[in-house]
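ok posting inputs for the magnesium ion job
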Amino acid sequence: MLINLIQAIAKLKAGEIVAIPTETVYGLAADACNESALRQIYAVKQRPADNPLIVHIGDVAQVLDWAAEFSPLAQTLAKAFWPGPFTLVLPALNSVSAIVRANEPTVALRVPSHALTLQLLKQSGLALAAPSANKYTQLSPTTAAHVVVGLGDEIAVLDGGACQVGIESTIVSVAGDNWQLLRHGMITEAQISAVAGKPAMLGAASVPKAPGQHILHYSPKTPLKLFDDLAGLINFQQNSRQTCAALIIDDNPPPSLSFNRIYLPKKNAEVAEHLYDALHRLDALNVAQLLVLKPPNTPEWLAILDRLNRAARDD
Ligand code: TXA
Ligand code: MG
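and the output
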């Protein structure tokens, strides 16, 4: 069910959940101070209770409503990357609901850069807890239509068009003057190091923890196999008795193939923008096997490779 901005504000203030657009993926939002609304998020997503939520705020000044510490390093990163596809995990104030934090001592915060959602945040004055608007382990939505397919038409959706970044935010935890990368995203480790003026902290005592990053995640319903080269992919298809469809990330696609496929050029921002939509479309073909020609294993492709590796599974 599509709703407008005024309706979305009314529903969120009444403790209902609403799917909202962001520049990364659609989120399933609730007032981050309303525990019964927060519980509905977990129920609708069928998400385990140990997987914390990101709190979306309209302005950097709101960090102090949630975090017990906003160190100079965290402030520098926020200034550089907000609004944008970047999430900061900071020590939480005691007042932050344990449901948002999933009992962690920290809270994840993000100022998204989607114009309609910034307007929603500012006009409502709310902070919105929002995980991706899909059932647990399934593909993230990058259009309002994906949300409806995944969660059903009863879900209220604020339609903000197709997401421009297309994959989930980079997550960084900051404690004092140290930082760690918890999830790859389109803001790269190199960009963060450059702004921070130092590399991420390493070492056994500081293994980064991002609860809920399960191996099987971001998965289409159809089994998905990854290939390093096109010859291997074609060979698999030719020897397979199953129906196949492919996502081919390559600048020079072969002129003819005898099976359904989607091509994306070898440009990381473009692949990120269209990745989930391509996987949703291939999934809807109801073939027995999806085949993906992987992008190269270089730093600018890490976030996309992370999503593809999690989507692939061996049945
Ligand atoms: O781009 C995004 O980040 C999207 C949009 C909607 O903002 N949201 C998103 O949420 O990807 P979700 O729930 O699918 O992933 C959030 C992840 C959790 O799985 C967890 O790994 C991490 O954020 N996280 C949240 N709070 C945390 C905390 N306090 N400590 C460590 N990791 C946390
Ligand atoms: Mg998710």
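notes: The domain at 2-196 is CATH 3.90.870.10 (DHBP synthase). The mean pLDDT is 94.
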